[in-house]
């Protein structure tokens, strides 16, 4: 575990909340908030069934958004999704992309890069929310995924995890970005749930306080979060199995065989040198 991962693992619950749960509302406000009033009986009962299991652990979700603007609608949408997931008992952490360097092959030890990779490895699933710009996802969002490797040694930060995709639009509704996010999720070897959310004219959909107004679009976001929780509970027990790939087993076997052959070659050379030295000593 690298230094940044150790720092993250040593954070107290209050420190985690301050750093990764900016979506949480004050207790009094949360009690009367629209998220707390949602009828989520079916999925809540499903979660309660899992809570009764001896090995129960809350689902862990990493939420990523794709804008650095102060008035970022993808961030607002991501926060609303986080509140719903939190209401359903999940441990939700939101990554702040500010300060993350542009992807290169040099800054792998940058604190923000290590933080992002550690959070992805920690998670059971992701929720991605990107604005649509020029018909596709933003550079801010793509940069985050580009910094997450498919594998680092035996560590696979995304493989086998679940994924929900969401987009916000400045104009009419589009699905270009969620479709692109699905392709990206498949490339990262993640299981993307069937449901998705696309918010049209995002600038008209939020209150001055940054809360999503009541609409069919808001209901759709709830659908996405419910499904992400259900699918994640079903797939999580098999995460290790999904990380087992024939091609990688063959690659590992070939590497081990090569290393074994190299060891035997060196041992043989050492034995020949030793034998030659003994013969030399006898002649002397």
UniProtKB/TrEMBL annotation:
Give me the segments passing through the membrane. Answer: none
- Region Disordered, as annotated, extends over 249-284
- Annotated NADPH-dependent FMN reductase-like domain ranges read 60-203
Q: Which keywords does the record carry?
A: Flavoprotein, FMN, NADP, Nucleotide-binding, Oxidoreductase
Cofactor(s), names only, from the UniProt record: FMN
Q: Tell me if Flavoprotein is a UniProt keyword of this record.
A: yes
Question: Which superkingdom heads the taxonomic lineage of this protein's source?
Answer: Eukaryota
GO function terms (MF aspect): nucleotide binding; oxidoreductase activity, acting on NAD(P)H, quinone or similar compound as acceptor
The reply to whether Transferase figures as a keyword in the UniProt entry is: no
Q: Quaternary arrangement and interactors, per the entry?
A: Homotetramer.
Record protein name field: Arsenical resistance protein-like protein ArsH
């Amino acid at each position: 575990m690298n230094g940044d991962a150790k720092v993250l693992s040593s954070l107290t619950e209050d420190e985690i909340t301050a750093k990764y749960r900016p979506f949480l509302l004050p207790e009094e406000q949360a009690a009367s908030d629209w998220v707390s009033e949602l009828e989520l009986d079916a999925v809540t009962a499903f979660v309660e069934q899992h809570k009764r299991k001896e090995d129960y652990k809350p689902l862990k979700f990493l939420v990523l958004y794709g804008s650095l603007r102060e008035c970022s609608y993808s961030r607002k949408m991501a926060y609303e999704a986080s509140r719903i997931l939190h209401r359903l008992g999940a441990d939700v952490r939101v990554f702040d992309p500010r300060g993350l360097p542009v992807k290169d092959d040099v800054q792998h030890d940058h604190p923000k890069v290590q933080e992002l990779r550690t959070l992805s490895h920690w998670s059971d699933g992701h929720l991605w929310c990107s604005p649509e710009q020029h018909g596709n996802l933003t550079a801010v969002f793509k940069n985050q995924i580009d910094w997450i490797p498919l594998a680092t040694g035996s560590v696979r930060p995304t493989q086998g995890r679940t994924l929900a995709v969401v987009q916000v639009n400045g104009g009419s509704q589009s699905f270009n970005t969620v479709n692109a996010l699905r392709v990206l999720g498949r490339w990262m070897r993640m299981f993307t749930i069937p449901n998705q959310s696309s918010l049209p004219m995002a600038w008209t959909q939020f209150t001055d306080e940054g809360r999503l107004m009541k609409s069919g679009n808001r209901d759709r976001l709830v659908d996405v979060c419910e499904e992400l929780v259900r699918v994640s509970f079903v797939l999580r027990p098999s995460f290790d199995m999904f990380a087992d790939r024939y091609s990688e087993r063959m690659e590992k076997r070939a590497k081990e065989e090569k290393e074994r052959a190299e060891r035997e070659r060196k041992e043989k050379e050492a034995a020949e040198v030793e034998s030659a030295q003994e013969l030399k000593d006898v002649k002397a």
